[in-house]
Amino acid sequence: MKAFFKIFTIAFLGFIVLFNSIIFTFNYFMKDQHGKGNSIVVRAAEEDKEEVIPPDEMDILLQLASESSRINIVLLGLEGLRSDTNMFISYDPDNKQIDVISIPRDTYYPRKGYTGLGKDKFNAVYQDHGADGVKMALSDLLLNIPVDHYITVNYKGAEAIINTLGGVPVYIPELMSYEDLYDDPPLKIHFEPGHHLLNGEDGVKFLRYRQGSPGSGAMSYADGDLGRIRAQQEFMKSAFKKAISFRLPTVVATAFRFVRTDVDLQEAVKYATMAAGMEIENVNMLTLPGVDEYRNGLSYFFLDEEETKTLLLNMYGYVVETENEDDVVEIGD
């Protein structure tokens, strides 16, 4: 009997070591290796920039962030070495709420030492600094709110995840038709108006769509990339609604194979377990405040820091107290 327990103990310990080694190796290879060693991002000084946020309001925001149990993640949809889709996802485990802030890819973000064409746009940061650099740049844009993790996914990964869900239902109000025969492979998009259950390949086409081909009579988003962002947000909300109708931890564990992230598998499943039973009404889709403008012939999106501060204070549930104690204005849920 003693020999049995000795053998069992040795075998059990060996299994634990082997299992942990496998998990460690898996988590290591799930990390995004692009831009390693070049993740330091330094924003260049902006001309005519005015300080619009009082220091005390900034202190309140950063204090709220430091005391919060929120988990903040940047999701990057990659097109080659540029981030075509950028979303800040903040999960509040206490209230089981998710706030998603879409970051327009043309957001003006000048960096010291990077002066090439388009290098002063947010979607160029990944190419030069990788996912860790994007975390730093996004935190900078969001007034130093911490960005804890990143998730990157390319078109093939997005296709696989959508297929894992069994497709995503969307309503398309107008004809969408576009061709780019010079893309590799050639891109052909065609959706008739109506309700659709989009598989992985068609889902990615829907997410990429911006405008109709000339002469096709198809819709183009009137406000450009902001219109595409709204369509992407509706798609994401529909996908999440379908995901939570399944066993969310199982969906996350399956989808984990198709992304690159600094979230460990065990941690990802833990987050998904925490979010189980969440209501779709608790998913808020937002867009970074700002305005579209042209500069030197290029389209840019310029951040409105004052509105961004208000949005973030609202997200963190800031309560504004007035001189009259009976007149307390609560911002947020």
TrEMBL record:
The chain crosses the membrane at residues 7-30. InterPro entries: LytR/CpsA/Psr_CW_biosynth (IPR050922), LytR_CpsA_psr (IPR004474). It comes from the Bacteria. Keywords: Membrane, Transmembrane, Transmembrane helix. Residues 82-243 form the Cell envelope-related transcriptional attenuator domain. PANTHER family: POLYISOPRENYL-TEICHOIC ACID--PEPTIDOGLYCAN TEICHOIC ACID TRANSFERASE TAGU (PTHR33392). Belongs to the LytR/CpsA/Psr (LCP) family. This is LytR family transcriptional regulator. It comes from Alkaliphilus serpentinus.
